[in-house]
Write a structure and sequence with these properties.
The protein is an alpha/beta fold. Helix 8 packs across helix 10. The longest helix has 18 residues. 37% of the residues are buried. Bound molecules: S-adenosylmethionine. The site of S-adenosylmethionine has 22 residues, from helix 2 and helix 3.
């Protein structure tokens, strides 16, 4: 497994992964939009929604991953995609919308980054963010438990992501930066064919830091144990399929 993201693995569940981006977009209090940036644009699936919603706006997108950017450029050749790190990037003050679907959970200090974005943009601009809030879900608890039980556990120390802070922390920080904040959670129940499908889902995201440090044999051993644990934690429905219970946090901050 390389350290870059795999666009094809990520797009295995493209519809399900894009649904929160659609749900976030549906809540934006914006009509006249001229400049939009898709932060952590991935393979351009979220950017595509932004272009469709505001076809006359200047939409751009950035990501740290060359593989994701290559895919995004193929999908939307008319859009400017560039490589940047959300933690170091600064928005142009006249941006109308900063959109970030499923990226800030990867940045440990993201609250300060988001607050700084709000401080930087003009009055009326909107910051729209969605993050998986699923560290307490079996998918993620079992990654750490499986890792701890492996003979190569020491290679995986520090692989787990930190849980998101409470929603009150976001609302306080973004309000203090000058925004009116709408925050909510949605729990999706994604139908999945079987336990292996759940493992495939997390392979391109939450499992990456657990698999990357392992050699092929270790990866196989880890995945077998992890899939068995997932199969127990997500019992089959009457037809044999499983429901992936998936909470996500949404934030819409409008600069006052
Ligand atoms: C789960 S994907 C989300 C892709 C897309 N926005 C969507 O709605 O499906 C997360 C993306 O965030 C990118 N990413 C992770 N850390 C980043 C950072 N610090 N700055 C910019 N992009 C980052 C990854 O490369 C990946 O493409």
């Amino acid at each position: 497994m390389t350290s870059d993201w795999s666009a094809s693995q990520y797009l295995l569940y493209a519809d399900e992964r894009t649904r929160p981006a659609r749900d976030l977009l549906a809540q934006l209090p914006l009509t006249d939009v001229r400049k939009v940036v898709d932060i952590g644009c991935g393979p351009g699936n979220s950017t595509e929604l932004l272009v469709a919603r505001w076809p006359n706006a200047e939409v751009s997108g950035f990501d740290t991953s060359p593989a994701m950017l290559a895919e995004a450029r193929k999908r939307l050749p008319q859009v400017r995609f560039f490589q940047a790190d959300a933690g170091e990037w600064t928005p142009e003050p006249d941006t109308d919308l900063l959109f970030a679907n499923a990226v800030f959970q990867w940045l440990p200090d993201h609250i300060e980054v988001l607050a700084q974005y709000v401080r930087t943009v003009k009055t009326g601009a909107v910051l729209a963010v969605q993050m998986p809030d699923n560290l307490a879900e079996p998918t993620h608890r079992l990654m750490s438990q499986t890792a701890a039980a492996m003979p190569f556990a020491d290679k995986l120390a520090g692989a787990a992501r930190e849980p998101l802070p409470p929603v009150t922390t976001y609302v306080d920080a973004l309000s203090a930066a000058g925004a009116a904040v709408d925050a909510w959670h949605t729990i999706y129940n994604h139908p999945m064919k079987d336990a292996a499908a759940i493992v495939e889902w997390v392979k391109s995201t939450g499992l990456r830091p657990f698999l990357a440090p392992l050699d092929e044999g270790e990866q196989q051993r880890f995945l077998e144990a992890y899939e068995a644990a997932v199969a127990e934690a997500y019992p089959p429905l009457a037809d044999g399929s499983r429901l992936l219970h998936f909470p996500r946090l949404f934030l819409v901050a409008r600069k006052g």
